[in-house]
Write a structure and sequence with these properties.
With about 240 residues, this protein is mostly beta strands. Helix content is about 5%, strand content about 15%.
Length: about 240
Amino acid sequence: TSLDLSFNEIRKIENLSSLENTLTHLYLIANKITTIEGLDRLKRLEMLELGSNRLRKVGNLSKLQNLKELFIGRNKITELKGLELKSLTTLSMQSNRVVTIGDGLKGLPMLRELYLSHNGIQRMEGFDAVPQLKVLDLGGNQIKKIENIEALVELEELWMNNNFLTDFDDLKQIKARELKTIYLEQNPLSKDSEYENKVLKALPTLTQLDADMYERGVEAKDDDDADDDEKDKPTIGK
């Protein structure tokens, strides 16, 4: 069962216990909720949407052990805490006030998609706890260096646009076996005249850089090693 109480003037989550055996999806977007509460008995809940409220912290979710998707973007949350959810696969905390990741991901062993864009995050850390992550969005933060993501070997999408990245050597920290998409636009390094070539060479599995799509064949070579024979050229094309 799905219940949508979005776009009301709700200030407090209450009177939902009668749905404890049926409710799986709960939408509470754009209300005036300041505290996560009143959900303990919703043991079957799989998706919770609390975007655009007045939350300052995450809490009172520990009983929701079947929760798979949590959306709490556009609030005023300052810390990545209160998340001990063994079944959660998707966490979206975009447009909050989070500055550090710390060890906030340790209670999320099944996490596959993490969206933390448009916060105030300054450093990449804590990803050893989620080696199975496939999508990581850190766009629009204050990050100066790609680091501490060697454990993310399953990563397929990495969003780092609108940060302060300057060094192409940072790309060596990416150990993902099948990274398909990366967004690096609106960083200082994206202004480099060889930006496209440097990124594609460093990440041979890419099929998308920013908004541009590529068909990748053999791995790109250094110019000095390139053969004039057409068959030996990398098949890179937009």
